[in-house]
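Summary of Year 1 activities. Much of the first year was spent building the evaluation harness for sequence design. The harness presents a backbone, in tokenized form, and records the residue chosen at every position. We chose the following record to illustrate the format because it has been used consistently in internal testing since the harness was completed.
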């Protein structure tokens, strides 16, 4: 018979896993907003600056309507500024990689961040890597590799790969930092608001590093639509869900559920852009879902040697 404590633990885990899945799916829609804006002639800093400006306005309005206090401790402000800088670094390198490779491939390479999170947690925080966690990562990585559908003999851009790896590293550290005790007790909405505010300020500073990166307004109503899309779906919704998932189930399971990000990119490619769904891609999708399910299901379903 389940005790009240066990019931609450199960409920919290379910909430965490649902939030982790929703966060990954929302974040996977980044190319759906970014690529049309690039086609409108916008540069990377403009796309990202207005993306996070919209996010800050939306979150700030929601916090004000719900009468949240915006007051945080000075020590917490430092951690929030670090989160903003990390997310700015991840966003800049990820969006820049779109100029050197297909967005779907970039989304695929970005998924190495769960491995980085697991490594950071094991090396820096002595988190034990269960066999089931390692198996989940392995299945998901093999599935991701099978999603690659480049032309025969094509080679990926070295710079594009480096940018994606850097983006993954920034995002991995972001996930780890958000779990630290310094932010405990702060509402996830408030954490996300300040992280996006500092991220926006970092992007504003980045726009001054080159004349080609100056901030420009979205030129058309279509561009404003995709700007608002980026601010809401892969930013506000994704990060709020991700913050809730980290608090409920921890950084490593949240990162592994990020396997659904490139899966979302593939689905968008098939449904929105008419890309072919080959047997190889379908096999990759099955492996990714298997990896996610392994980390989602309660541990007592597995034999002892896998726990």
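For this record, the design step produced the sequence shown next.
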């Amino acid at each position: 018979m389940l005790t009240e404590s066990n019931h609450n633990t199960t409920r919290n885990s379910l909430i965490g896993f649902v939030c982790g899945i929703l966060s990954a799916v929302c974040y996977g829609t980044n190319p759906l907003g970014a690529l049309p804006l690039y086609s409108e002639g916008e540069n990377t800093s403009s796309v990202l600056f207005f993306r996070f400006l919209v996010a800050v306005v939306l979150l700030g309005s929601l916090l004000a309507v719900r009468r949240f206090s915006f007051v945080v401790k000075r020590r917490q402000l430092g951690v929030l500024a670090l989160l903003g800088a990390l997310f700015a670094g991840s966003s800049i390198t990820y969006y820049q990689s779109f100029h050197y490779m297909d967005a779907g491939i970039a989304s695929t390479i970005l998924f190495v961040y769960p491995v980085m999170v697991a490594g950071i947690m094991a090396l820096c925080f002595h988190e034990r890597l269960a066999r089931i966690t390692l198996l989940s990562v392995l299945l998901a990585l093999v599935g991701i590799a099978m999603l690659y559908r480049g032309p025969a003999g094509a080679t990926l851009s070295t710079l594009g790969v480096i940018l994606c790896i850097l983006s993954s590293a920034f995002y991995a550290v972001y996930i780890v930092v958000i779990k630290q005790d310094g932010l405990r007790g702060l509402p996830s909405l408030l954490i996300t608001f300040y992280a996006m505010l500092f991220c926006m300020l970092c992007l504003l500073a980045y726009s001054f590093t080159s004349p080609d990166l100056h901030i420009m307004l979205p030129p058309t109503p279509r561009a404003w639509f995709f700007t608002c899309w980026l601010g809401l779906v892969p930013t506000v919704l994704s990060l709020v869900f991700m913050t809730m998932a980290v608090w409920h189930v921890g950084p490593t399971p949240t990162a592994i559920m990020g396997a659904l990000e490139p899966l979302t990119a593939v689905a968008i490619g098939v449904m929105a852009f008419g890309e072919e769904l080959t047997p190889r891609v379908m096999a990759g999708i099955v492996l990714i879902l298997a990896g996610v399910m392994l980390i989602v299901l309660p541990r007592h379903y597995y034999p002892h040697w896998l726990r």
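The two ends are 22 Å apart (CA to CA). Quantitative recovery figures across the full test set are reported in Table 2.
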